[in-house]
Design goal:
The protein has seven helices and 28 strands. The protein is mostly beta strands and 408 residues long. Strands 6, 17, 18, 19, 20 and 21 form a six-stranded mixed β-sheet that branches.
Length: 408
């Protein structure tokens, strides 16, 4: 009776992190038997930062809002619509960039309407308060939506019938204090002066490598100074070995985002893709963040200490197999895992594993029949992402044991 199977990925088909093997002999099993990982080894080639896996740093640099200004490709769009003879028409008018008071903006918006519908709009500047844009024309009913409407997915889906626009980059000038009543022939609304936001959400790549605290501080400083000619920010990073943290000093308030926030879709919509922030660098892919923020994060402030560094590329290796009885469950929903191995060796060393005990709960229960002959093994992280390993090979031993001899 075969009691142990020695598995080597070099003799399998596929990649190191996902391969299949063919058993050379028939392995008969019974329901009184179980199977478990009795030994496992893999080289620790998991760098602190790994290309296409954890090489993106997400952070924000606070800027200064530029008041009384329309900036090209930032806040230069005026959204509006009108109805005539029961037919709706929706338009996006691009306003000329430059300095603009509230009165000048109201006139520009009125002129945009007049250019399409004729002399139907006027601007009135009361003795105090913002200017008022008036519309009075029986032939047309006009509608100017508010900023909250334009940036609302449901409103865009159910109401807007004009040209397609990016909900996460509307470039809307806003400034409508009270959205006009929906398609009314007569109305007035106050207009505020335009303001361009220059807070920057930045995603920048960090060079792959196995870092120490000091060398990562150098890389972090380089990453945080991305586009500093645009942001007006200068960052200095200093590693503090006694505490295992990095001191970040910045000429503008800065935050390196908490990794627990980045995967939250609501946070992404409100804090990353919100139109009030300008985005620089690599485009965020919500389904593939590849974030390096777990290594060091903190702020917002001009001078702060990061949380303690985590320079380990991978903390645990999840071993999956086609022989799993789906008797396990991870928080991320994985059911095929047959063993989890802690990465407790330094980079370049060999990670080895042997079980501390052979308890019944650790064993995959087998059935009457045969094992295999084709068995698949794959390795992932805690989220189920394929383990980023392209070097070395995997060795493991599967032990077939009688259930009635298990420790309890």
């Amino acid at each position: 009776m075969i009691r142990k199977l020695w598995i080597d990925s070099r003799q399998g088909v596929g990649a190191t992190n996902d391969f299949t093997v063919e058993l050379p002999l028939q392995v008969t099993t019974t329901k009184e038997q179980g199977c478990l990982v009795g030994q496992f080894s893999i080289p620790n080639v998991f760098s602190s930062v790994m290309r296409d896996y954890c090489d993106r740093l997400y952070f924000r640099v606070d800027g200064v809002n530029v008041d009384n200004t329309i900036q090209q490709n930032v806040n230069d769009r005026f959204y509006w619509g009108y109805r005539s003879n029961g037919q709706q028409t929706w338009l996006i008018t691009t306003l000329p960039p430059g300095a603009s008071s509230a009165v000048q903006l109201a006139i520009a918006m009125g002129n945009a309407i007049i250019a399409v519908l004729g002399p139907v709009a006027t601007v009135v500047q009361p003795p105090s308060g913002p200017p008022v844009l008036n519309f009075n024309q029986s032939a047309y009913q006009i509608y100017i939506p508010g900023y909250q409407d334009i940036t609302d997915a449901q409103w865009r889906r159910e109401v807007w019938r004009g040209a397609a626009y990016d909900l996460n980059d509307t470039r809307s000038v806003g400034c409508i204090i009270f959205p006009t009543p929906s398609f009314q022939a007569t109305w007035s609304t106050d207009i505020e002066s335009p303001s361009a936001f220059v807070d920057y959400n930045i995603c920048n790549l960090i060079a792959p490598g196995a870092y120490t605290g000091a060398t990562f501080a150098t890389q972090l400083q380089s990453a945080l100074n991305y586009e500093n000619a645009t942001t007006g920010n200068t960052v200095t990073c200093t590693y503090q070995p006694d505490d295992g943290v990095i001191r970040v000093q910045s000429t503008r308030a800065l935050v390196i985002f908490d990794p627990n926030l980045l995967g939250n879709l609501r946070w992404q919509a409100d804090e990353w893709f919100a139109p009030k922030y300008r985005r620089l660098g690599t485009v965020m892919n919500p389904s593939d963040l590849r974030m390096a923020n777990h290594i060091a994060y903190g702020g917002p402030d001009f001078d702060f200490l990061t949380y303690p560094l985590d320079l380990s590329g991978i903390r645990e290796v999840y071993i999956h197999s086609s022989i799993s009885d789906n008797g396990t469950l991870s928080i991320s929903g994985m059911r095929s895992c047959i063993c989890v191995v802690q990465v407790d060796e330094s980079w370049g060393s060999v990670i080895t594993y042997r079980p501390f005990s052979v308890a019944d709960s650790d064993v995959i229960r087998l059935q009457d029949g045969t094992l295999g002959p084709t068995i698949r093994f794959w390795l992932t992280d805690y989220l189920g992402r394929p383990l980023p390993i392209t070097e070395g090979y995997v060795f493991l031993q599967l032990a077939i044991v009688p259930l009635n001899t298990m420790e309890t």
